[in-house]
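$ ./design --mode recover --in tokens.txt
reading tokens...
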């Protein structure tokens, strides 16, 4: 076990933010008020009343300036998840040991671009850091809720992956040092997919968005970064009810198991058999051990179709599968990420009835809403947004003009809503291209569609098992 996990002073991200709040509140303005009052009275007594008033007003202005700085700092803690810039003494050193020097440097540089005062302990850190590097690393954009800037683990090898190709990709896209950038360009380097793969825990997520908004691409990129981070120490299973091999196969080459069907082309009999195949896959997934260092991830694409069709079919095997999925959702609601159990679900709708979810499930899955800017094609989908918003799956307010202008400036046509706010979504880095293609993946040498046809035609016990 690494020292990062074993340290007794380890805190979760939210605990660090609370500690930063406490540190800021320790700087009371009551003492400053008393100093201002006595300074004004002293000058008034020995010089003139006007000079005393001027000195007093100057001191009061300083108090208001400090309170303004404090509020800006608290806004950065709440909205951006920063903590390092405001910690003092041993707290700051503990945070450096836990999060890593690179992550702390990124937080401090980002806070500096926002014009807030760093703590006394944090003030000298950037200069010391840069003296130890030939060039300052490129500061990342702001963090969001539960997305801590913990440094990713080293890339590990994998039998089905070209290791030299991964190393080159990782060096180019994840760790290459760059010169400092102007503050207005900080967000140009934000990579949401990479952030989804970072942090101490890989956390469960539900990705909502209308058709053609890029849900699959975002999930694919993020899973690619997960594979790059963990190598063979992560197991990724993928199932889908809307799988088109020619279109979707390129997304999931980093997965250990891929089982996809295109439900619109299947008969009810074939759909029942599909649930049987998935049930076997879920049983295999369930029996696999997992931990924070060796997570397992179940990806459910077209969640609404999978859950809704099972109800309509009135099939015991379909119901068994759905209940198994709901059981996994209950597990992740109860410290699942700390046991390495992760579910990522994708759906084109945020309707609770279609998804088969509860409010508790939604909270545990940390929703991400993917959308296109109004000027893109097909563009903003108001119905999808309103449905998702009403169920807590999208921010309460639509993207404001500032975010849309930023997307336009950066040449981006997609954005995401996460943790109550909107962020531009950078273009895909096509991480999946660095792995073995799905068409030649060992685990699906024989397509699931062929398996269905064989089961339907055969008189084996498997057929009876999956029909009812």
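writing sequence...
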């Amino acid at each position: 076990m690494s020292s990062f996990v074993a340290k007794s002073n380890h805190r979760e991200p939210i605990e660090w933010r609370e500690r930063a709040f406490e540190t800021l509140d320790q700087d009371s303005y009551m003492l400053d008020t008393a100093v201002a009052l006595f300074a004004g009275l002293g000058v008034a007594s020995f010089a003139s009343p006007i000079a005393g008033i001027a000195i007093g007003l100057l001191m009061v202005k300083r108090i208001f300036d400090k309170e303004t700085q404090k509020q800006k700092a608290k806004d950065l803690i709440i909205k951006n998840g920063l903590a390092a810039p405001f910690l003092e003494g041993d707290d700051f050193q503990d945070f450096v040991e836990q999060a890593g020097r690179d992550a702390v440097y990124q937080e401090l540089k980002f806070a500096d671009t926002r014009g807030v005062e760093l703590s006394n302990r944090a003030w000298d850190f950037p200069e010391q850091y840069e003296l130890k590097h030939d060039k300052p690393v490129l500061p990342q954009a702001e963090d969001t809720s539960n997305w801590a800037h913990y440094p990713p683990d080293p890339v590990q090898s994998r039998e089905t992956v070209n290791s030299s190709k991964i190393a080159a990709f990782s060096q180019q896209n994840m760790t290459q040092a760059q010169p400092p950038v102007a503050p207005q360009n900080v967000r140009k380097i934000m990579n949401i997919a990479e952030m989804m793969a970072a942090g101490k825990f890989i956390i469960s997520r539900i990705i909502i968005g209308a058709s053609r908004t890029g849900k699959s691409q975002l999930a694919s990129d993020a899973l690619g970064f997960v594979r790059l981070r963990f190598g063979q120490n992560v197991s990724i299973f993928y199932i889908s009810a809307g799988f088109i091999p020619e279109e979707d196969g390129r997304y999931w080459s980093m997965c250990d198991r891929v089982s996809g069907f295109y439900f619109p082309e299947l008969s009810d009999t074939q759909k029942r058999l599909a649930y049987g195949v998935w049930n076997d896959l879920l049983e295999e997934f369930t029996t696999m051990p997992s931990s924070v260092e060796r997570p397992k991830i179940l990806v459910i694409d077209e969640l609404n179709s999978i859950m809704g069709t099972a109800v309509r079919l009135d099939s015991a095997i379909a119901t068994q599968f759905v209940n198994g999925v709901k059981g996994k959702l209950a597990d992740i609601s109860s410290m699942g990420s700390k046991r390495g159990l992760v579910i990522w679900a994708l759906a084109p709708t945020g309707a609770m009835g279609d998804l088969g979810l509860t409010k508790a499930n939604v909270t545990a899955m940390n929703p991400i809403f993917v959308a296109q800017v109004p000027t893109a094609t097909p563009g903003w989908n108001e119905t999808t947004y309103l449905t998702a918003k009403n169920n807590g799956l999208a921010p309460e307010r639509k993207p404001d003009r500032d975010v849309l202008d930023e997307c336009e400036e950066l040449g981006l046509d997609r954005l995401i809503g996460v943790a109550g706010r909107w962020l531009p979504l950078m273009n895909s880095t096509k991480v999946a291209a660095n792995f073995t293609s799905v068409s030649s993946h060992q685990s699906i040498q024989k397509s699931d569609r062929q398996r269905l046809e064989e089961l339907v035609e055969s008189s084996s016990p498997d057929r009876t098992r999956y029909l009812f």
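exit 0
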